[in-house]
Design brief:
92 residues, 78% helix
Length: 92
């Protein structure tokens, strides 16, 4: 007797799933735009700190660039990461 349960995601089981996907896509776009803005602002702070011989300001600018780039990586890789871990979870 095989009692295995097989359940897959249902994209039309609830009303509003399409709208939710659109909202998530829009939020990803906003996140990426904010990451680009963060890189630009942090690069300006980094340049101002370097040119004014202010190592603390330059360090904060460098940190800001790295944080903004990390945020862009997370926004861009979020769907792939979730799909990867979904596949890993399904194979357990």
């Amino acid at each position: 007797m095989n009692t295995a349960i097989n359940i897959d995601p249902n994209t039309n089981g609830l009303p509003g799933i399409g709208a939710l996907q659109t909202i998530v896509g829009a939020l990803m776009t906003v996140g990426l735009i904010c990451a680009v803005l963060g890189v630009i602002i942090s690069a300006i702070v980094w340049a101002l700190g370097a040119n004014s011989s202010n190592p603390q300001l330059a360090g904060r600018g460098k940190t800001g660039v790295l944080v903004a780039l990390g945020a862009a990586i997370i926004c861009g890789a979020s769907v792939t990461a979730v799909n990867f871990f979904w596949s890993v979870g399904q194979s357990v």
